[in-house]
Design brief:
It is an enzyme of class 3 (hydrolase). This protein is α+β, with helices and mostly antiparallel strands and about 475 residues long. About 15% of the residues lie in helices and about 25% in strands.
Length: about 475
């Protein structure tokens, strides 16, 4: 008995002393959430002939005065108009914006009519109503435009990734929506997981559109493409990468001089958000490389202090799943991230949660042997938030020991909230699905790299 006590105590001591050389690997024991898809029938289309469905909005220009409204009509092309008006005041005059219409075939699937209408010249920080459809199948939604871009404009983003459409995905979205703070979502890729079904069953793209409508019809989600958006399947003669995704999700890429919707930037409130594509060429001389090189000098931290990057495949991941898949992109772009003092990088792909230290690994030159990450006050914090809860399940096998670059990691589903307070401080929290939204499993006051480049204290208070 005494020996048993000794062994148990020794084990606990070793655990608490940290036999690894990194940060925290949470030992939180979660209830198992079902990572199986919710049946297609649950996401039935709205009632009424040709009713508009799968409604979603995103930012429509570079500064937040435009909104792209997208929706699907299943049977007829028309109406293809969105009607909108200011919610407050005496401005009851209704405006209309016409949509472009597209559709596509994928193997034995034919899409409905997919509409994309850009509403322009909106007022900042103003609530609008909008309507789609006609007669007795009119559907009404609303959104609020962001405040004018400026250095101390508070703004709160939700962050989700790898969502899918399982019971766990449902829980993640409900948790995010139960928090009234979130004003827009940064989505780090892998939307529907249609490609996990036979012949990439594109009905799953439709059901996903219906699933997330309750949030994305009312606030913009900023899109970033993941590997599950590729839908590249030569075995069924589907050879055009990203075909369903690019038909369904439009982004304002031309506003940032990008030549592809897979990489672009926007400004929103006090944030400058750069979206990259892990699955498009990024070597020197490629369109994405050239675009990013020209992009960083355009960021004015006196206007948008917070520089945020979204990409799918994480650069600093200590999970066995997808380990080092982001390495070649890190080698290409990390020096720019450090030179330009990116504040935070959100990635997905790995179905677990992880937060890095502020580290960089840019000194290696093949012969100098300096190939380990080091603490770097100019480096971003890297967040892996691919824990939306899709059909592929949790990634619960971390590399051991926990590497020094890893500050906190946990194999649970959840989402994050990024609350910008002013030019120097932002409050970041990660919420696992099995706790009340008010509880944060991981939290941190983030200090801006341009205005307040000091080392963050874990769970500190704003000073
Ligand atoms: Fe992925």
């Amino acid at each position: 008995m005494a020996a048993m006590w000794f062994i148990t105590t020794l084990s606990l001591l070793l655990l608490s002393a940290g036999v690894c050389n990194g940060g925290v690997t949470s030992k939180y024991v979660r209830l198992s959430e079902r990572s199986v898809d919710i049946p297609v029938g649950y996401f039935s289309p709205p009632p009424g002939f040709n009713a508009p469905e799968q409604v979603h909005i995103t930012q429509g220009d570079h500064v937040g005065r435009s909104v792209i409204v997208s929706w699907v009509t299943p049977l007829e092309r028309h109406p293809n108009v969105v009607t909108y008006w200011e919610a407050e005041g005496n401005h009851k005059h209704k405006h209309a914006a016409h949509a472009i219409i597209t559709d596509y075939r994928y193997f034995n699937y034919t899409s409905g009519y997919i509409h994309h209408a850009t509403i322009k010249r909106l007022k900042y920080d103003t609530k609008y109503f909008y309507e789609l459809g006609e007669h007795n199948v009119t559907r009404r939604f609303s959104f609020t435009t962001p405040p004018k871009v400026g250095p101390d404009v508070p703004y709160t983003f939700g962050v989700m990734g790898d969502l899918g459409q399982t019971y766990a995905s449902f829980s993640t979205l409900e948790h995010y929506m139960s928090n009234p703070k979130g004003q827009a979502v940064l989505f780090v890729g892998d939307l529907s997981y249609a490609d996990d079904h036979p012949y990439h069953d594109n009905v799953k793209w439709d059901t996903w559109g219906r699933f997330v409508e309750k949030s994305v019809a009312y606030q913009p989600w900023i899109w970033c493409a993941g590997n599950h958006e590729l839908d590249f399947a030569p075995e069924i003669d589907e050879n055009i990468p990203f075909k369903p995704y690019l038909h369904r999700y439009h982004v304002p890429y031309r506003a940032s001089q990008s030549t592809s919707p897979l990489w672009y930037s926007i400004k929103r409130a006090s944030a400058y958000i750069i979206v990259l594509s892990s699955y498009s060429a990024y070597g020197k001389y490629t369109p994405q490389y050239n675009w990013l090189q020209n992009e960083f000098p355009k960021v004015d931290r006196t206007e948008t202090p917070w520089l945020i990057v979204l990409l799918h495949s994480p650069w600093y991941n200590s999970n066995n799943y997808h380990y080092m898949e982001g390495e070649s992109m890190r080698v290409m772009f990390e020096p720019w991230f450090v030179q330009n003092k990116v504040d935070i990088v959100f990635a997905g792909h790995v179905h677990a949660y992880e937060r890095s230290e502020r580290i960089s690994n840019v000194q290696y030159n093949i012969t100098d042997g300096l190939s380990a990450p080091v603490k770097d006050p100019s480096a971003p914090i890297y967040i892996t938030i691919g824990d939306g809860g899709n059909i592929e399940g949790i990634a619960d096998l971390f590399t051991e020991p926990q590497p020094s670059y890893s500050a906190y990691r946990e194999a649970s589903f959840g989402h994050s909230i990024f609350e910008i307070k002013n030019r120097s401080h932002a409050y970041y929290t990660w919420h696992r699905n099995h706790e009340n939204e008010a509880i944060a499993a991981d939290s941190l006051w983030l200090y801006n790299r341009y205005w307040y480049p000091y080392e963050e204290r874990i769970s500190g208070t704003m000073d």
